Amino acid sequence: MGKRIGAGKRGRSPGRAAVLLGAGALVTGMLAGCGSGGGLKINVYYAPEDSFQKVVDNCNQAAGGRYEIVYNKLQRGSDDQRLQMARRLAAGDTAMDVLGLDVTWVSEFAEAGWIDEWKDQNKAAASEGVLDGPLETATYNGKLYAAPKNTNIQLLWYDDRITPTPPKTWDEMIQKSKELKAQGKPYSIVFTGAQYEGLVVFYNTLVESMGGHILSDDGKSVVLDDGAVKALALLKQITNSGITDASLTNSKEDDVRQTFQRGDAAFELNWPFVYASYAKDKASDVQHMKWAVYPEAVPGTPAKTTIGGYDLAVSSLSAHKPEAYEAALCLRSAENQKFSAINDGVPPTIESVYHNDTPLDPSKPAGDDNPNMAIKYPMRDSILDALKDAAVRPLTPAYQNMSTVMSKVLSPPAEIDPKATADKLREQLNDALQSKGVIP
Amino acid sequence: MTVQDSTPADTAGATVAEEATSGKKGKPALSEGKKAERKLGLWLCAPAFVVMIAVTGYPIVYSIWLSLQRYDLRFPAQQEFVGFDNYGAVLSNSYWWTAFGTTMFLTVVSVAIEFVLGMALALVMHRTLVGRGLVRTVALIPYGIVTVVAAFSWYYAWTPKTGYLANWLAADGAPLTDQWPSLFIIIGAEVWKTTPFMALLLMAGLALVPDDLLKAAAMDGANGWQRFTKVMLPVMKPAILVALLFRTLDAFRIFDNIYVLTGGAQDTGSVSMQTYDNLVKGLNLGIGSTMAVLIFITVAIIAFIFIKVFGTAAPGSDTGGKR
After folding, report:
1. How far is A402 from chain B (nearest CA, A)?
2. Is A169 helix (H, G, I), strand (E, B) or coil?
3. Does B82 touch chain A if contact means CB atoms closer than 8 Å?
4. Contact list, A397 vs chain B (CB under 8 Å)
5. Sheet of A289-292, strands arranged across
6. CA–CA dist A75, A391 (Å, integer)
7. CB contact (8 A) between residue B174 and residue A250
8. What confidence tens digit (pLDDT) does each residue in B2-58 have?
9. pLDDT in tens, A25-66
10. What is the pTM of this model?
11. Cα separation of A357 and A162, whole Å?
12. pLDDT given for residue B79 in this prediction
């Protein structure tokens, strides 16, 4: 709007400047008065994602000038992302409209009153066709607080030159790994074992696969039942049998990826992003990189794998809520989820996107330069299978405390004593849940 | 620096003492002029006093108030006054005491090393005849580098594959993933960074030592070491007190080096790190403020001990006598 006035002034003779200044002031007044003019900006705060600006551009086009979505990139580290948003919201910052929340933050932000509940049409639009697991992550106390944008789930990656068929169960995998070790082949099972959220994700998968629970269903009390104790025993067995990597207690997602990519491991448990980087760095070998769903902890019962991903929420301090809801819905529409899955490798939350074989440019045939889901996402069926048995991390506002305590108590996994560790966890998680006690 | 600082303070002390004695003799001893002078003095102090209250007094009182409450930003509905419960929770927690022990260890070891190195550096800078400016500038460079930046360069130096120091201790070691190597790397980074500061303060103390005194001692047959311990150190004591006090208080609040180097993993976190984790990351204002207050109290105790123990034994009383 400033531009328009300026342009008007420049075009005229200086003699009429005064009149024009008056007119300019009038125009400014009119524009400011009409609220949703060209100047309305919807600020989206979301993690760095390479092609997300294109998605934002698409949605700006769809908005037809009623508002402009601005993509504010958050930091890379997820702790930093959460901190920036939490700090600003706690201080009453009204400049944030749409927030990209990791699936474990939704309860926290909802309980603190920082994000609004999705209701009626918005709720229907945000949950239509969405898979159960991802939808559950956006729900707190039975109310929907966010629209699932993308999900994420770990798979078992293996090399068919080392093991032609993937192990079905943990026992089988441990056995296989020991055999490979005896034969002098790459044998190790690699996963995120460092003292951080990744270890909690891994443990949560084992607990859920054992049919156990860490918290009660309402997230208000600590259960840590028999299944959870069995999971501790399994975690100890995995890390105590000489079949993990030497740097296990220092391995995060990317270290795990590198170990497998170097050919130093037989089995990798990791998020799907590893496929794209393997394809890029070792294009000649990628046909040997295979995937399967997580091994079963209880033979005969499919594993329940922990999901990750992002949900989009609307700040309760936003001054433009209707537009913010609309923008959030557009940013995670089926079409844009497909775009993000193909370009950035983030798994969609809407089931139909997995079956969609239309390439990015529907007018041309699918191919490497016009990819569809089948070309860029060959593991989509496994992901979908895994998502059908998804495990959600405990939904509680105190998740951050819980996670810190758990990663501390579980480290190093090889020194777990199932009974004693469970007692310690029970006691410290209880304090963490009530935000009493000290976070390590 | 020390010399300048101590002069006005001492004069002020002297005036107060003078007034106190005159006050004892009888009330109306103050003349009109003195009264007006005093009033003016108070007025001149007032702006500084108000600013101090605003920027230090208020936050201190507010955090003490917060520390007496259950106040978690994520559970705004559950805010309530809980008295000293938070203090009980923190002081009975093993994580807090682990961090406290780590912090104490880091403080004592790094300040001790800094003192020895700083003294050596101060002597070198004091005695250098050629290129004195250059020597002093070079010595001060580490102190001029932002701590976080320096910490990152240490971090990369000690990280396998990117660093030139990582494989220095063990062939395929990752020293920053073990507790003890990490602690000594943190100490190394601290010492490297703040020795120049220590040296600067000690050099100011060295300037106080009169050459005549040293010459006289030499005449009496004192050797170099005796001159150093029997003449220089006693004369320098006030400067040493200030240098050690400043550094100890600083070292106890160590944060940036640990934050960058280990992030507090493997029990290398300091009390400040833990306060940050609880207050900022955990959004728990109650527990976090409690920790902040406890750090404040510890720092006050350290300062008190320094002034009591060193202060009375130091020839500070001598300086009073000389005047």
Report:
1. 10
2. strand
3. no
4. 74-75
5. A189-190, A267-270, A155-159, A289-292
6. 27
7. yes
8. 334 444 444 444 444 444 444 444 556 778 888 899 999 999 999 999 998 889 989
9. 444 444 444 444 458 999 999 999 989 999 999 999 999 999
10. 0.77
11. 32
12. 87
Facing residue for A90 by CB, picked from B73, B265, B274: B73
Least confident range of A35-49, A298-312, B89-103, B210-224: A35-49
Considering only CA atoms, which of A1, A47, A3 is closest in space to residue A28? A1
Query: Token match 């208080």: residue?
Result: B249
Q: pLDDT-derived band of residue B312, with 50, 70 and 90 as boundaries?
A: low
Long-range Cβ contacts of A174-177 (<8 Å, 24+ apart): A174/A237, A174/A238, A174/A241, A174/A243, A176/A266, A177/A243, A177/A266, A177/A267
Q: Which domains does chain A have, with CATH numbers?
A: 41-152+308-383 (3.40.190.10), 153-306+389-433 (3.40.190.10)
CA-CA distance, A400 to A407, in Å (whole number)? 11
B278:A250 CB<8 A: no
Q: What is the pLDDT of residue A337?
A: 94
Amino acid, single-letter form, for residue B78 = Q
Task: Write the residue in B74, B96, B291 that is nearest to A108 by C-beta.
Answer: B74
Residue entry with tokens 């005549």: B212
Total number of residues shown for chain A: 440
Q: A377-397: per-residue pLDDT in tens?
A: 889 999 999 999 899 999 998
Tokens at residue B6, please?
């101590």
For residue B50, the distance in angstroms to the closest alpha carbon of chain A comes to 26
Nearest residue of A to residue B175, measured between CA atoms: A250
B53 interface with A at CB cutoff 8 Å? no
Length of chain B: 323
Q: Residue A102's beta-bridge partner residues?
A: A310
Say if the Cβ atoms of A436 and B89 lie within 8 Å: yes
Coil, strand or helix: which one is A271? coil
pLDDT given at position B173? 67
Omega of the bond leading into A412 within 30 degrees of 0 (cis): yes
What are the structural domains, with CATH classification, of chain B? 99-283+295-322 (1.10.3720.10)
